[in-house]
Each structure stands twice: as structure tokens, then as C-alpha cells.
């Protein structure tokens, strides 16, 4: 099998369509179909399931995709090493990040980095903590932003300490003091998010035995805050999320509640030159963001 075959397989799996993959790669749909058929004949099993809605990975296809990604990433690394030998800085870096890191930091990181290294292209993949972990482990991205509590067995480089805040409707009347306690929060209805979205908040709640009662289970930060602003309950939110929020809400600090944000990867010792350059750029210029 050729590198083009691997690229075709990866692109089809991402696009879910032969026609879309053909458009991305500049090939004809028949060429895409032929490449996949040849791949399946050589492997001896099907890697894609074809139906009217498009194509999906078979169980075999899901298992070999990480290895295909590894081959393509190795080819990219080789190209970057050769370019580095020639005194050039070029290549593609794929970085995964969760919502608040993407909106608060990535625009400035991309602008400051490309100003120095215009030949290095950055691809951004936004998702939940679980998405970023999956992308790192399966070679979809080179490294990503995660919280320390969610990084698991991945290498973790601390970057930013992010306090957790209690967010309440604007008309909320606090009993006393400026800090919100777990006991006070336990008396209120909550708006909560999926655990993969706010694992750090879920961990904090478990640590203080806070079992929130809620009728509202949402996914994104803005929806959560909107529900709070309209009086449907309170929530706990990282301070970083609240930087550009315009909803009228109150924000209360919580004692000893924070998340540590950093960079995660499989192994920082084995990075392609362009990947290592961006990784170091973030470490050196954006610590304590």
C-alpha cells in the first residue's frame, strides 16, 4: 500500500463520503473507490461499510486507523526533519483543545506563531476533554490542551492555574461572606454539563460531597451560563470561560477549587520539528496565560 492509499483511507473516514474525500484530495470519486477497494483486497477484509447515507468504518477499519495515522504522521515528521536539515521551518501541526482554551488562547497563539514561522501550518481540532485524549492517543493531533485531572496517563506540562467560580443569577442573594461554600451551593438547583465536558467541576463536587440536583443537562459553557442568567439555577464554571461572557450573572470565588490546564502529548521526546517548535513556543510565551 502507498502513502496515498493511507491518506485516502484517513480522509474518507473523516469525511464519511467518497465524494467529499475526492474533493479534499483533488481526486475523482472513482479513484477514491479504487484505492479503498485495492486496500481491502490487499488486507483481506473490509475497512468501510458503504450505504446510502455515506460510509463508516468497520470494526477492522477502526482498529487499523490509529496505525494509518501513525504512518502518515511519521511521513510528515520525516519531511519536517529534512526541511530542518536544509535550514527551513515548515510542516503541519495539529493541536486539540477544549472550548475555552480554543476561544481564549488559540487566535493569539496562531497569530504570534505564524508571524515567526509563516511556513508552518496549524490545524485546530476543538472538542471535549475526551475528544482531545482520543485524538492524541490515536494520532489525529500532535498534542493538545487538557486539564491535569483529565490527562490520565498522557504526558502533561502545566501552563495555567484556572480558579473555579460559582455562577448565580443576578438577583441571587448570598447569605454572608464573599466566597461560596459547598454547603451554600447544596441548597440551590444546578445547571450541569456532561462529565466529559466539565470533568474538573465533577471532580470538585465529588471531593466536597456535593450532589447537585438538576433538571437541566447541557453540553456547552454558553448554554449553561444562559440557563443560569435566566434563573434556572446556579453552576460552577472555570474563570477562563467567563472572560468574554456578557450575560448578567454574579460570580463568586470558591475556596480551594481550581483546574490546572496544560499541554498533553504521547511523548515530548519524539516530536516532529514543527510540532516541537509550536509546543515550545506555547510553553515559553504562554505560561501563566
Automatic annotation (TrEMBL):
GO cellular component terms attached to this protein's record: cytosol
Pfam families: HTH_1, LysR_substrate
MF (Gene Ontology): DNA binding; DNA-binding transcription factor activity
Keyword line: DNA-binding, Transcription, Transcription regulation
InterPro entries (alphabetical): HTH-type_LysR_regulators, LysR_HTH_N, LysR_subst-bd, WH-like_DNA-bd_sf, WH_DNA-bd_sf
Residue ranges constituting the HTH lysR-type domain according to the UniProt record: 1-58
PROSITE patterns with a match to the protein in the record: HTH_LYSR
N-terminal signal peptide: none
Stated family: Belongs to the LysR transcriptional regulatory family.
Protein's recorded name: DNA-binding transcriptional regulator, LysR family
Native organism: [Clostridium] aminophilum
Amino acid at each position: 500500500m502507498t502513502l496515498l492509499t493511507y491518506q485516502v483511507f484517513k480522509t474518507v473516514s473523516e469525511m464519511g463520503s467518497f465524494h467529499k474525500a475526492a474533493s479534499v484530495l483533488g481526486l475523482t470519486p472513482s479513484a477514491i473507490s479504487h484505492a479503498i477497494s485495492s486496500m481491502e483486497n490487499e488486507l483481506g477484509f473490509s475497512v468501510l461499510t458503504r450505504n446510502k447515507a455515506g460510509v463508516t468504518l468497520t470494526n477492522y477499519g477502526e482498529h487499523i486507523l490509529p496505525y494509518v495515522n501513525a504512518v502518515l504522521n511519521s511521513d510528515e515528521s520525516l519531511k519536517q526533519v529534512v526541511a530542518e536539515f536544509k535550514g527551513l521551518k515548515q510542516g503541519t501541526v495539529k493541536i486539540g483543545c477544549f472550548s475555552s482554551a480554543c476561544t481564549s488562547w488559540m487566535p493569539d497563539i496562531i497569530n504570534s506563531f505564524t508571524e515567526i514561522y509563516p511556513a508552518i501550518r496549524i490545524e485546530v481540532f476543538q472538542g471535549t476533554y475526551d475528544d482531545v485524549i482520543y485524538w492524541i492517543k490515536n494520532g489525529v493531533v500532535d498534542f493538545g490542551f487538557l486539564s491535569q485531572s483529565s490527562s490520565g496517563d498522557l504526558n502533561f506540562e502545566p501552563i495555567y492555574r484556572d480558579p473555579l467560580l460559582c455562577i448565580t443569577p443576578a438577583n441571587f442573594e448570598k447569605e454572608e461572606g464573599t466566597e461560596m461554600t459547598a454547603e451554600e451551593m447544596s441548597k440551590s438547583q444546578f445547571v450541569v454539563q456532561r462529565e466529559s465536558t466539565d470533568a474538573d467541576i465533577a471532580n470538585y463536587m465529588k471531593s466536597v460531597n456535593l450532589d447537585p440536583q438538576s433538571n437541566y443537562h447541557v453540553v456547552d459553557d454558553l448554554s449553561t451560563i444562559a440557563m443560569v442568567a435566566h434563573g434556572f439555577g446556579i453552576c460552577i464554571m472555570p474563570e477562563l470561560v467567563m472572560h468574554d461572557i456578557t450575560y448578567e450573572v454574579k460570580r463568586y470565588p470558591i475556596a480551594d477549587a481550581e483546574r490546572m490546564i496544560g499541554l498533553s502529548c504521547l511523548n515530548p521526546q519524539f516530536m516532529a520539528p514543527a510540532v516541537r517548535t509550536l509546543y515550545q513556543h506555547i510553553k515559553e510565551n504562554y505560561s501563566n496565560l
